[in-house]
Every structure is written in C-alpha cells, then in structure tokens.
Amino acid sequence: MRAFCVDAPMPEEVSRFCGFVTNTLAPAGVNTLVLSVHYRYRFEKHKMCTGRNELTREDAHRIKSACDAAGVKLVPKMNLLGHQETAWTQGLFTGYPELEEFRPDGSRRFDYSHSICPSHPNAQRIVFDLMDEVVDAFGADTMHCGCDEVFEIGQCHRCRGKSPAKLYADWVNGLARHLKSKCVRTMIWSDRLINAAENGYGVWEASDNGTDKALPLMDKDILCCDWHYTVCTNGYPSVDAFAKAGMDMAVCVWHQEDGTRAFVDYAKAHDKGHVKGVVFTTWMVARHVMDALEGRDVPERGSVSGLKAALSRNFRQVFPRARCDWRVYSGNELPLEGACPGGATRYDRLPEEGIDHVPADVRQLSTHTAGMCFRFKTDSDRLRIWWKPRHPGMDMWHMPSTGASGVDVYQWSAARGWQFVAPPWPAPPKPEGAAYAWTIEPNAPTMVYLPLYNGVDDITFGVRPGADVTPLPPRASGVAKPVVFYGTSTTQGGCVSRPGSCWTAVATRLADVPCVNLGFSGAGRMEDVMLDRVAALDASAYVLDTIGNMPPALIDARYEKFVRGLREKRPETPIVLTANGWLFRDDPRERARRIKAIYAKLKTEDPAKWRNLHFVGDYGADVAPDAEGTMDGVHLNDLGSARFGKIVGEKLKAVLAK
Fold first, then answer.
1. Residue 57 to residues 124, 133, 138: CA-CA distances in angstroms?
2. Given this model, what pLDDT does residue 191 score?
3. In the chain, which residues have pLDDT < 70?
4. Which of 44, 104, 129, 209 has the highest Cβ tally under 10 A?
5. What is the rounded distance in angstroms from the CA atom of residue 637 to the CA atom of residue 194?
6. Which of 245, 296, 313, 302 minimizes the C-alpha distance to 274?
7. Long-range pairs for 357-361 at CB < 8 Å and ≥24 separation?
8. For the whole model, what pTM was predicted?
9. Complete DSSP assignment for 240-267
C-alpha cells in the first residue's frame, strides 16, 4: 500500500481534485487515497449531523470514478471516537449532544479533544447509520474510522469504573464487526494501542490512560496506522508490538524527512510480514495540498507553515516516482542588471570599498535593490519566484508594500512590447520569505524587477521540470552600457505600486538600454564622494535627477561643480539634467529655474565640450498638470511615473542614437 491521506475537497473544488488524483497522485505511485470526509457529507438519515461544506452523493461518485480510472483505491475516513472537535461545531454532536463523553466536572484534558461516549446506548446505532451512508456513497471496501487521540474515556457516569482498554476495544471491534458485515475492512490510527511510557513516545502518538492494554483484544483484521513523525532515539518499538499481537500495520509519516527515513528503515528491518505499506499524511485543507504539489502558491501561515517542506521534499522521498514540482535556479546563476561591481553582496548598489565614506543614509539605502533586474527567457509556462527580504518589517505609509518590497515580472511580445504579467498574489514577502508563481508565455523575453525600497537576501526561480532558463541576447538597440540615474526618492521609485512602474524602468524599457538606479531617498545631494561613485560607473549616459533634495542654496553650492566634475571624469558620455515641473510649490520652481540656468551657461560657455549635455524640463503639464500624477504633489504615482518615464525614455533614445 502506498497511501496518501488528505482532507476531502470543498464542493467547488471536486473537479480540480479529480484531476489532482489523475495527474499528480497516480503518476507519483500513490495507489490508495485516504479521504478525510468526517461529517462533511450530506447525510439523509441523520441530516442534523451534516457538517459545513458538505459533499453530495454525486460528488462522492465523481471522486470514486476518478480514483477507479487512475487505479487508486479510495478509503473514506471519519473520526468515530476521539478527535471530535470539528463535530462539536457542526457534526455528530450538533444533532446528538448527549453522545459526548464528559468528565464529572465538565472539563477536558485538552480543549479540542471531544470524544464519543462508547457506553451510550444510542451511540453505535447512529454511528453505524452514518458509516453506511459514507461507505455506500464512495463505493468503498475499506473505511478508516480514526479512533486516535482519545483522551476522554471512562470518565462519564456511564463509563466510570470500566476499563479504558475494554471500552476502547469493544467500541472499535464493534465498528469493525459492522463494517465486516458489509464486506468492508477497518483501518484506524493506532496510537491508543501503544504505551507511551514503555515505548518512549509522546502522549499524542501513544497512550498514557490505559487504552494500550486493548491491543491483545483487538480484531486481527483491523489495519493499524502507526504514525510517528520524528526520529525516535530508541527506535520504533510499536512495529514490534503489532507484530507480536498479530496485527497488520502501515507506517504513517508526515513532514520530517529524517523521521520518515528512520521510521521506514526500522519498519523494513523489523517487518514480520505485517507491515503493509506507508501512509503519507497531510493535515491541511485539500486546496493547500493541491496548490503545493501542483506548483501554485501556498500561504505560509498558521497551521499551513511547513506544508511546502512536507510536500515538496518528503513527498518525493516517500514516492520516488513523483515528478519534481520545479526545476530551481538560484538568482546567483542568472545575469543581473543594475547591481554594482564590488558590492558587499550581489544585491548592493554601491561598492564595498569606501562605503564608510558615503553619507550614512546613502549607505543604508544602497542595500535596496531599486533598478535591479533579471533578464532571461524560459520554455516553461510557469515561473515561481521565491525571495527573502533583506529588511523585514519595511513599511511606509505613502507607498504600497508591493512596490517597496515586491517583485515584478514583464514579458515582451511583438504586438504589445514590454508588458507586466499580472501577479498571482498582490503581496510582498513575509520576513522569512515567500514564493509566488506566475503564469507566463513560454520562450518570451522576460524581465524580473527587484524591490525598490527593500533588498533581497536570497532569490530563486522555479520553472517546470525539464524547462531551461537562458539569458537574453544583446539588446536590439546595441547599447550594452547602462544608463546611470542619480537622484532622490522619486528616482528610487517613490511611490509607485510595482518595481517595474518606476520611471527609470519605464524609460530604459522604452529606450531598450540597461539601467543602474542610484536614487537615494532624501539623500541625492551631490556630495563630492557621490561624484566619485557615479563617475566610477562606465555608463552609456548619466541622468541627474537631484532637484527634490537640493534647495536653491545647495544647488548654487554643488550642482554646477558636480556636473563639471562628471564631465572631467567622463568627457564623452552624455549627461542629462532633469528639473521636474510637477512640484506644486514656488521653491521647487525656483530650483528648476536655477538648474536650467546652469545648463544654459555651460552650453554657451563651450558648445563643443558640452555638446553631450542635455536638459529635460518644463514638462509639468505633461506629467501632473493637476497633481493626479503624484501621490502628494511631489512623489510620483504609477500614472505620473509612466508619463515621466516616457519623456525621459524618448530623450534617451534620441541622445543615444547620435
């Protein structure tokens, strides 16, 4: 038996679930599906026991047909003694609250551990009716009855004074006899048949309340599902105990790879012909399980944490035939544009040498990945990106976190040019990182932009098994050197909603040139040390956009000096000055006037020397005539960024064509 245990799907997911059985489980080698139905079935005889999101008889037939066609045996599962927490809100106890086992004082050892009273005179009759409907609907010849984690037994006035072992054995054997009369075999979780103290197990995976003494009393046709998820230092003596008792068993594993290997190896070494196979368990909703194994996104929160590790690695350990979900490439393997040579990490915008000499705010902001971009193509139709933010908790009131800390995918088509690919989940990563999977056009040129106001500690790309990722050829423009942008928060990307919406990205996509973004929020002040850093980059053009951080007095003191210094260091490289006219205050207009005057002075002074000095200004009416292109009258939103990026992109095309 190679079994897979999962919750039943929601009614609206039945079609997808049937495909999951056919296309994922069966090819992996799964031959048995243990489907946790519980009370999520539309009962006819005891309608009040029907749980939420119930499956119909037609749904059950569809799942059964898919399993039959795939050669997978279907085993419905219901919790029919302990573990009734779902039933407490909607299930057996909704219709028959008197069937619950209570301690004399009304307490429970664990709040979730509601249990059926095995001594109640009506309990078996009602449970048998429910079992019969489920077995019939799913056309089953085996049923899993749960019976695990029974902490409340022998407590109520009907059961008090009776042996917990006998109560347990009589109840479970009664279920098995009833099913046997229908030619149906019984499976149970067997943790209650193992002594916790004697075998070194915990109180969830073994018993400390006397039910373990029921083992020699059990019907020998019952298949015991022995679950242990961690490495046990003294081995797994329950394997030997079931052999001694003459009981068939299955090894049940979940999320720990080391624990799985140790348990399976021990069972193989101690098999007396009674180990009938393995059950891979999953304890999340079916949708999350399907998403993880089909390469879709799974929220890593709450009870879902660890799901990906369990299903992507341990699943393939248990089912070696399982197809690999993704072929993974590290970001270190792919060409990256926009990073600075000599950075402390691959994702720094300034070299490590001399970093202590730049202003402190520039030093901190240089760890942000604004402007950085991977360019490649792949023959996969799915692209999974996992990235871990360098600065967890980064949040700004005036900029969407998707722009500050998210990534952005663009693809090229002859009809549309570069266009962003709609994200599957509009959210940035959590501090521990997160992954999202885009549906993409195979073999189309692809660009992935990194966060604007955050960095990445690590990033990986996943594609379909067998698919390749290859770098793009040189650009059609023939420009290989980057355009270097030096400036302020608007240059860095404030305050757009996606990294690819930043005007520097818009401009360089339009001009078909590489980009280096040296925008430093609040810190574009043209210090001498920053002149050295900017000029050190061999560029196809320099774009200076520092107006937002330089009041008139600072422009008078530094602007002309910076431009002259850059020209001395790079005599032939085009320099483009910007003076944005969307700033809705008198002072910025005065700043723009002074920058324009410096431009005119230099052009007049020596036309030959300054032939490659250019000016982009007086465009306020084009970018944000009524402030709609800004977030706050200063920082560009997506609309203003698109407009300004087009203006600068057209200018760069003209400048670089000369």
1. 23, 9, 8
2. 94
3. 86-90, 295-310, 312, 322-325, 393, 425-435, 581-588, 618-625
4. 209
5. 64
6. 245
7. 357/529, 358/527, 358/529, 358/530, 358/533, 359/523, 359/525, 359/527, 359/529, 359/530, 361/520, 361/521, 361/522, 361/523
8. 0.58
9. HHHHHHT-EEEEEE-S-HHHHHHHHHHH
